[in-house]
Amino acid sequence: MENTIHTVNELLSTLKKYQCQFGKTYRENGFIFRGVSDKSWQLLPGLFREYKEPQNSSTIISASYSGRIYSSNEIEILAHFKKEAIGFLPHISLDDDFTWLQYAQHFGVPTRLLDFTSNPLIALYFCCRSESKADGIIWMVNASPFQTWSENEMFCAILGPDCTRDAMISSIMQSIKGYSDDDKERLEKYRPVLFTPAFIDQRMSAQSSRFLLWGKDDKPLESMIDEKNVMTLSPDGITYEVTNDKRFFANIIISGESKHSLMWELDLLGVNEKTVFPGLDGIGRYIERYYKENIDDLCNFI
Prior knowledge:
Layout: E1 4-5, H1 8-22, E2 31-36, E3 50-52, E4 66-68, H2 74-85, H3 97-106, E5 113-117, H4 120-128, E6 136-142, H5 143-151, H6 154-159, H7 165-177, E7 193-195, H8 202-206, E8 209-213, H9 221-224, E9 249-254, H10 259-268, H11 273-276, H12 280-301
Parallel strand pairs: 1-9
Antiparallel strand pairs: 2-6, 3-4, 5-8, 6-9, 7-8
C-alpha cells in the first residue's frame, strides 16, 4: 500500500523505518535518493528517454516523430560537448571520456548517467520545486545490496575477484566507444553501476551527488528489478537488519497538493535555491521564488 507524504516530518519518520529495517545509516554505503515531480516518470537517463512531439506543435519538421533521438548518437554527442567545452576545461585530457561524461551530465547534456543524492531532503526539494500539482515521488536505493545486485551477472561471474567498480565502469565506457572487429570475446556490463562522482563544482557537493551509470541494458531501472528486490516495510515495525537481505529498492509518494507547504518547510530547514545552487544564480532564484510565494500566500487569504 502506497504511503503519501504531506510533511517533512512524515518523510523523515518513514525513512527512519526503512533505516531501522534495512540499514544502519544514510551515509557510508547507505541509501541514495532521487526526487521527481511526477510519479509517472521513469528512472531512465536522458540518453534513453523518448521524445514525443507535442500535439499542435509548430515545427519545421513536416512529419511527427516519437522515439529515442539521442541514444543512436551517443559518441557524437559526447564528442560535440568536448569540442565546445575544451576551451573552458583545458585541464581534462580528451581521452578521459569518463570525466567528460560527468561534466556533460552536470551541464545538461543527455548521457547514460542518472543523478541521485545521499540527502533525502535534497531529493524532496527536487520533487517539489516545480509548479506541477501532480503527485511526486522519491525513489530510494539501498547502496550495499544494490551493489551486490549490480555484480550478480555474467560480467562479474567471469571476472571473479577482478570485478571491481573501476572494471565495471571501464567496460561500459569501452562499449560507448565501440569495439574493433578483432575483439570478438568482448565482455559487456548490463546492469547500472553506482558511484560517487568527483565534485567538479560546488553544486555537486551541495547536492550530495551520486550517479548511476547505465550499462548495456537500456531499460528503466524499475523495469530491471524483480519484486524480491523491493523493500517493503513490515507492519510489525521490525527494528533490526535481516542478515543477507538482498532488497534495495523502494519509493515514497509525495502529495502534489502539499508541495508548496513542503517547500516552505524545507526553506526553514535551510534547503532552498541558495544552498542547493550555491552562487549568484541560486540567490536570484531564491529571491524570485520568495516574493512570488509571498504573493501566492496572500492570494490564498483573499
